[in-house]
Amino acid sequence: MDGVKLHDLRCFDAVASRGSFQAAAQALHRTHPSVFAAVARLEEQLGLTLLDRSGYRVSLTDEGRLFHARAQLAIREFEHLRTYAGQLASGEETMLRVVLGDVCPRPGILGLLSRFFAERPRTRLHLDYEAIGGPVERLMDGEADLVFHRANPSDPHLERIDLCEVAFVPVVAPGFLPFDTRNDVTPEAMRPFTQCLIRDMARRPSSENFFVLDGAHSCSVPDHMMKRELILHGLAWGHLPEWLIKDDLREGRLISIAGRHIPGRVETVAAVRRRDKPHGPVADALWRHLQGGEALLS
Q1: What are the HTH lysR-type domain coordinates in residue numbering (predicted)?
Q2: Does 89 have pLDDT greater than 80?
């Protein structure tokens, strides 16, 4: 394969795809003799007869058909490589790393990202999920370009765009508690029952307390979908985002025990990025899109 030219491969591909040297020459904006010479040169270098020229229209030989399939892959890979080089030269990111936090209303955020990246096919979205302290830790450790999560508004290293508020509701399954939940439920009454908690994915977990009832039995799960399943099956109780359990509450599959002693909690979901590092053109475009207001979640 030494000395095989991309030009010759493209000429062969055009002839194989269009069925004639004349049609290939027109598609490539080249002369008929130059295309003919390119294919002949390729066959000589390979030691293969790729085209059957005996009929009215040229056709692929068996070897030519097999080689053509591989040649098309090589041509596409080269086009991808050229696009990649163009992105590098222009400073446009080939990949954007985004982390979703556990407080995010995922359907809205994923829809937002889908619409944005559909218009930017040259940049690949690398998407991860982290819980509790994991998203901001990944951001600060240089492993993410943008996170959707809660963040300390006073942190000078971070800038944020508030997107929406998410209410967290303490819930149980019907029959989980042996007493009337219409009364104001106290922590003392809940202490004998297993509380389900989200597991902190940070390598350096924070000491911040997220709904933890001191002295209660507990179990941990990686995300709110698993937490919801445990609570629905009467294996535990805990706080869940209202967007996830609206139907469960309305249809009686879950019961809120929010009250004066065990309140719910409202978290602000924000887009968060580092203030102290440069951002590429795609990351900046996404940031401007979020600032514009049309992307904000209800």
Answers
A1: 4-61
A2: no
